[in-house]
Amino acid sequence: MKSSPKKIRPAQKQEQQPGVEDKMQPKPDAIPEDRQRKLENKVAIITGGDSGIGKAVALLFAKEGANIVLSYLNEDVDAKKTMELIKQYGGEVLVIRGDISDEAHCKDIVAQTIKKFKRLDIVVNNAAVQFPQESLEKISAKQLHKTFETNIYPHFYLTKAALKHLKQGASIICTTSVTAYRGSHHLIDYASTKGAIVAFVRSLSASLAEKGIRVNGVAPGPIWTPLIPATFDAEKVAEFGSDTPLQRAGEPSEVAPSYLFLASEDSSYMTGQVLHPNGGEIINS
Questions:
Q1: Cβ(97)–Cβ(76) under 8 Å?
Q2: How many domains are there within the chain?
Q3: What does the pLDDT look like over 202-241, one tens digit per residue?
Q4: SS3 for 176?
Q5: If we measure between CA atoms, which residue out of 97, 96, 94 comes closest to residue 86?
Q6: In which residue ranges is the amino acid composition biased (Basic and acidic residues) (predicted)?
Q7: What is the b/e burial string over 106-141, where b = at least 16 CB atoms within 10 angstroms of the residue's CB?
Q8: Which of 181, 190, 259, 269 does the annotation list as catalytic?
Q9: What is the dihedral of CA 147, 222, 59, 146, to 10 degrees?
Q10: Which residue among 42, 109, 182, 258 is least packed, with the fewest CB closer than 10 Å?
């Protein structure tokens, strides 16, 4: 037999719609919380935080009071500049260089975070790679492994290492993609990893709901990041994003507020969901 639903409010009934709030016990909470900065004293790990979306998220989080652990592969110049900007917002920052496809490195990121900050509140799984191919036959086993090892495995590695340090109210945010929903004929392996991330978000959110840890995702459309000129030829880069309803690529700063919303108490009643800053493309979520 199924257990009865928990009675979390006194039994009550009103006879007329739409109802009278003043008669309700307790009354609905509609008062905005008085918070000057939404992430004051929080600690956030952000993978791929040296540039692009990760950089924009790191800077916005720092502006809202968070301390940042910036994970990156080998882009030293970008990482240093982002670190300096974070400090300008008054946030402390720990920069960690290395390959997140290595589980041991992911464990070390968490260990260094706890050693420096003594806490962890937010995990942003963001780093990714993509390698266009015109057909499935051209996707080598080597490329397939590289894409999956970079794009989805670290979500498991880093989150698993972080879980024992995350408390009620913590937030896990994963970067998926519009390609997870509509597919991509020339990014089959990439889109497949992004679809896996959606399933990861939905499954992990159900697993952690009782602990009060929220898991959500962001599915950007075409965003102007270093990954784009590193992926496509010059002609495609020049037209990148022009096929969206808004007829342009988005900026990382236009995506970062989605992460802030999901990291903060503003989204306290959201878990297992994905936000879609994608330039207006209607997708089946």
A1: yes
A2: 1
A3: 999 999 999 999 999 999 999 999 889 899 889 888 999 9
A4: coil
A5: 94
A6: 20-36
A7: beebbeebbeebeebbbbbbbbbbbbbbeeeeebee
A8: 190
A9: 10
A10: 182
Known active-site residue 190: yes
CB 197 within 8 A of CB 174: yes
* Tokens coding 158: 């880093």
Token pair recorded at residue 14: 């009103």
Q: Is residue 16 part of a domain?
A: no
**Nearest alpha carbon to residue 220 among 267, 265, 256:** 256
Look at residue 261 and tell me if it is in a domain: yes
Distance CA 208, CA 22 (A): 35
DSSP β-bridge partners for residue 123: 45, 172
Residue-wise pLDDT for 92-106, tens only, equals 999 999 999 999 999
Q: Is the peptide bond before 26 cis (omega within 30 degrees of 0)?
A: yes
pTM above 0.85?
Answer: yes
In a domain, 48, yes or no: yes
Segment holding 237, helix H or strand E: helix 234-239
Both tokens of 217, joined, read 């995702």
Distance of CA 146 to the CA centre of its chain: 21
Domain that holds residue 216: 36-275
Q: Which of 113, 92, 75, 100 is nearest to 40 (CA)?
A: 92
Contact at 8 Å (CB) between 72 and 50?
yes
230: Cβ–Cβ under 8 A, 6 or more apart, which residues?
Answer: none
Q: Is residue 30 in some structural domain?
A: no
